[in-house]
Specification:
Strand order of the largest sheet: 4-6-8-11-12
Number of helices: 3
Shape: rod-shaped
Mean pLDDT: 90
Low-confidence stretches: none
Radius of gyration: 42 Å
Length: 451
């Protein structure tokens, strides 16, 4: 066949270029007509009535003159880029298409390579993903990390950064899309937006869950916090699982570690619990402090964490052990064993203060029960909030919490909820001399729980 298969150039058979007066030799002319018929058959019909039977070989072309174009717009089509890569152009402008997506599961540390461009890696355990140098990966290299089992740390090469920081932590249950500029790395910030949505779009103050309880294994030294969330203003943090802190040690990050902001555990002390949020990944933690206000918490040990909100309180006894309690909805703490605060204490018409076992430094509503005895059969005793000032007990005055004696020196019982002052005190007074007994069943300490 006279068509060159490499160049496609057709050459007529020898002896088919006649001169005037020459007698035509039928052999070469028959070969010519046969070749012409074959080549017409092997040509691609313009009407598309027949397909190609071998690969179509197009010119390499350029971005402005593609090897495969269109009659109406020759600058739109396909061309061959350097390195054997296929390029697409629209009106002379290059159009980029991504390479095939690569999915893989990883169970430990990994170094992301240039070949991982457009890869999605799901990490099923704690891992550090080390990024190859940005210059090696090149601009537009991109990569997705899914943390599906534990936190994953993204660590750029050397002094290079990601989002301007040395590392990026992808918390368990989240993912991050990473792109290279050729000199640094950036994430799409989606993870950060999800985690901080509550901060940026809402305000208010509440505690949902995070109820306190004595730890089952170490009830005297450890406190458990149930799963939940807390907000103060625009600051929000949540915990999807229970969390534990101990009062017998200074604060250290993580569940089960020490919780005190300073010092060591003391007898008959009050420790207020505050929810913390880690700045880098917004994870949850708790610190315990004797300060009744968030501004008084010692933050020396809390570098990298922000205080969010007070979420509860813990009291110790005379042996520096956590008092056993049960926490109920609406921030009510009930003592497992009622505390007898006063036994046969003299009471008279002179008002006095009584300290009871409730948080120090904050007003709480104590749930108390009373027993009263007096030789005066019409006598009653009144226990009340010190903020009311000095009151007078009696039916014609401010009334009573317990009484009246039906038999001289007999006993009457009563009780109720009484607010304390910030020094753990309530005030008591009687209409006449007598004796009083006081039991403490627990207290309400409002942190914002509504259920």
């Amino acid at each position: 066949m006279p068509r060159n298969p490499s160049t496609g150039v057709y050459s007529k058979p020898a002896g088919t270029t006649p001169s005037v007066g020459q007698v035509i030799d039928p052999v070469p002319w028959n070969a010519l007509t046969t070749d012409l018929g074959n080549e017409i058959t092997n040509s691609l019909p313009r009407d598309g009535s027949a397909p190609m039977v071998a690969p179509l070989k197009a010119a390499s072309g350029t971005v402005s003159a593609p090897g495969v174009g269109f009659a109406s717009n020759p600058q739109t089509g396909m061309y061959l880029k350097g390195g054997g890569l296929l390029g697409f152009t629209q009106n002379g402008v290059d159009v980029s298409f991504d390479q095939a997506m690569i999915y893989a599961v990883k169970s430990g540390d990994y170094t992301a390579l240039a070949s991982d461009n457009n890869a999605i890696h799901r990490f099923t355990g704690a891992a550090i993903v080390t990024l190859t140098a940005a210059a090696t990966l090149g601009a537009n290299w991109h990569y997705t990390v899914i943390a599906d089992g534990a936190d994953v740390t993204i660590d750029p090469n050397g002094a290079e950064t990601i989002d301007g920081a040395a590392t990026l932590i992808v918390p368990n249950g989240y993912s991050a899309f990473i792109i290279c500029s050729g000199s640094a790395f950036f994430s799409n910030k989606l993870m950060t937006k999800i985690l901080t949505k509550a901060d940026s779009s809402a305000v208010g103050s509440f505690v949902d869950g995070l109820t306190l309880s004595n730890n089952t294994g170490s009830p005297n030294t450890h406190i458990d916090f149930a799963a939940g969330s807390a907000r103060s203003g625009s600051s929000f943090v949540s915990s999807g699982t229970s969390f534990t802190k101990r009062v017998s040690g200074t604060w250290a990050v993580g569940s089960g570690n020490g919780g005190l902001d300073a010092g060591s555990v003391a007898a008959n002390a009050t420790y207020f619990a505050y929810a913390l949020r880690k700045d880098s990944d917004l994870s949850f933690d708790v610190v315990l402090s004797t300060s009744a206000t968030i501004g008084g918490v010692n933050t020396t040990l809390l570098t990298g964490f922000s205080l969010v909100k007070q979420i509860g309180v813990v009291l110790t006894d005379a042996s520096s052990l956590i008092r056993q309690f049960v926490m109920y909805p609406h921030d009510f703490y009930q003592w497992v064993t009622p505390i007898r605060e006063a036994t046969n204490v003299a009471i008279s018409t002179t008002s006095a203060l009584l300290a009871i076992s409730v948080p120090n430094g904050a007003k709480v509503e104590a749930k108390i029960r009373l027993m009263f005895s007096s030789s005066a059969t019409t006598n009653s005793a009144l226990v009340h909030d010190p903020a009311k000032g000095v009151l007078i007990a009696g039916g014609n005055d401010s009334g009573g919490s317990v009484g009246t004696m039906q038999v001289a020196s007999g006993f009457a019982v009563g009780g109720g909820d009484v607010w304390t002052n910030t020094s753990r005190q309530v005030r008591y007074v009687a209409g006449a001399a007598g004796s009083i007994w006081v039991w403490n069943d627990g207290f309400y300490f409002p942190c914002g729980r509504i259920a």
